[in-house]
Amino acid sequence: MSWIKECTSNWLESLASRIIKTGKVPRHVAFIMDGNRRYANKLNVAKKEGHSKGFEKMFEMLSWCIYLGIKEVTVYAFSIDNFKRSKEEVDELMDLSRQKFKSLLKNMDELVEAGVCVRAIGNLSLIPKDIYQSIAQIIIATKDNNKAFLNLAFSYTSRDELTHAIKDIATGVKHTEILPEDITEDLISDCLYTYQSSNPDLLIRTSGEVRLSDFLLWQLSNACLYFTDTLWPEFDIWGLLGAVFYYQKCYSDLQKVRNNLKTIALNDRSSKYIAKLHREREITIENVCQSTVQS
Questions:
Q1: SS3 225
Q2: How far is the C-alpha of 109 from the C-alpha of 112, rounded, in Å?
């Protein structure tokens, strides 16, 4: 299949898009892609069919976001809590991920041509090795792209992310690479899985659920939250335009809050530690990618 498609629209969709683009468009949008199983039940098909449609919708929505000028997209692809589902469904989700990532690798030229950089946030040590290897290959192959950024939250929860950040900070203090007084909100932010990204401006959750489900709890503290009853596989350009329009109505209030936020620049000691930590994470991905070549 073609992953990054050129957006085609009728005259009404095109007109609405142009109008929306005259206003403030969010730089970074996060999606909780909820409703795949309910979509499958609605059509009386297997759950894996619903998840497959949801995966395809993710790239369709990425194309629309690029068209609107949204630079970065983060999607909640697989929660650590999803491992609690039945073994049959978890196995189906892993098999689907395995197939989709392999297909994506075979069509990597599309991502490169579109300038999409793919990143992964989450505890990837919890997923099957071959899926981890495919994700690592995609990350390495697209790391120099900068037209748009797709962050896959895979094997992710915010609690797990914060736990690992605290452990990294504790390790730095233990080895006297940083001191307790160096610990600030900005240092914590730089230790999160999302250290390469700005915080989302807008969160969109589909399927009618009005909760965050342990997704980007730290990063969404000053974001605009938009909830819709539409099931994720049925979410379309009109849903996205409606969410962006809602963000534009909230923008002035969001800016007032953000203008009052203060940042504390990292000192040299903290900066060196953060640079080392980030490099270690990059090396881990490189080693996983290299293990694919050797196997």
A1: strand
A2: 5
Identify the sign of the CA torsion 260, 168, 75, 138: positive
- From residue 89, how far is each of 82, 136, 153, 155, 285 by CA, in Å? 9, 24, 19, 15, 27
Return the residue matching tokens 């970065």.
Answer: 72
Give the span between the Cα atoms of 232 and 227, in whole angstroms: 11
Residue 114 and residue 148 in contact, taking contact as beta carbons nearer than 8 Å: yes
| CA atoms of 63 and 261, how far apart (whole Å) | 32
Identify whether the C-beta of residue 172 lies closer than 8 Å to the C-beta of residue 143. no
DSSP-based three-state secondary structure for 224: strand
**Residue 96 CB neighbours (<10 A):** 17
pLDDT tens column, 187-229: 999 999 999 999 999 999 999 999 999 999 999 999 999 999 9
CA distances from 243 to 34, 250, 257 (A): 16, 11, 20
The answer to whether the beta carbons of residues 36 and 50 sit under 8 Å apart is yes
